[in-house]
Amino acid sequence: MQKFYVDAEGKCVGSYDGPAGQSPFAGTPINSAPADADGQRWSGGSWVWRIEIAQQRKIAAIKQRLAQALLSVPCPLAGNRPVQLDKDSQGNIGDATQQATVVKASAGAVTWPARMVSRGWRLADNSWYPLATPDDMITLGLWAAHAVELRRDIAWSHIDAVRALSDPAAVEAYDIETGW
Asked: Whole-prediction pTM value?
């Protein structure tokens, strides 16, 4: 039966599937394999993630949760219909807001596009939110920036909480779903 050998710190130093007592590895033999020999340590009868690895994995999950939260954000300006605020959409909204600012500052030299009045902004549910004036687009852009920052603040609160934990089991158990 294959055995996995751990040193005094619980690190897996190798495995051996030969006759008992002939292992080339020093250390304590364990019957179960780690999922990741570099990232896990044997502790208290089971493999546990090193704290920095547990934190990296949880922070990656928080960032993924943030990305998910930005895919469909209820917009009160559009009757709570969803707006996409992922990175690409943030850039698009920022560009359109800048265009609206230029139109407004031009004092009539540049006109607000008719398609923005008739159609407006495409929402996450594939419906349209008409933007009759440049001010409407600027308002949408400011709302979007605020909505993104609120969600980033939630993510940063979770990341800070995870970084403050010193026990891998507590990191693994930390609930990233609160506050969104």
From this structure: 0.81
